Amino acid sequence: MYITSLDEVFWGLLLIALTMVIHGVGVAITLRVGQALQRHAQGASPLLGISALVVATWILVIVHLIEIVAWGGFLLGRGAFENLSTAIYYSLMQYTTVSSELRLPYGLRLLGGTIPLSGLITVAWSTGVLFALAQRFQARYEEAARPRGRSPEPE
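Request: output the structure for the sequence above.
Response:
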């Protein structure tokens, strides 16, 4: 019979906190780089502005992969899997809510549902960051396309 332990709850909460810290640092870097690239692209080709969004996306994907590796490293350290590759595979499948055929041993089963929670939270956060950068990109190019001396039409 499986019984959820406080140990599982503790590790789940701690790992979600670690995921959020990693993500917060990654978001700060993404925003700085994205804004700098957009400033550099101001007045240039829209493709240069779009490249800032692509670079921001790459950074966020790398941040997500670091988070997945952190989960996988924890699971490997706790003996859930025989090698890091399998632990990362499991973490990736859970993080992205795809799931996998692999199962965690008793004593870690709660983490099988905690990993997707952290993934959902951080993916939503990343989406918000990309949305904010995309809005700035669009506003700059709408402003550049507007004829001089005319104010925008009311909505």
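The chain has one domain: 7-38+46-142.
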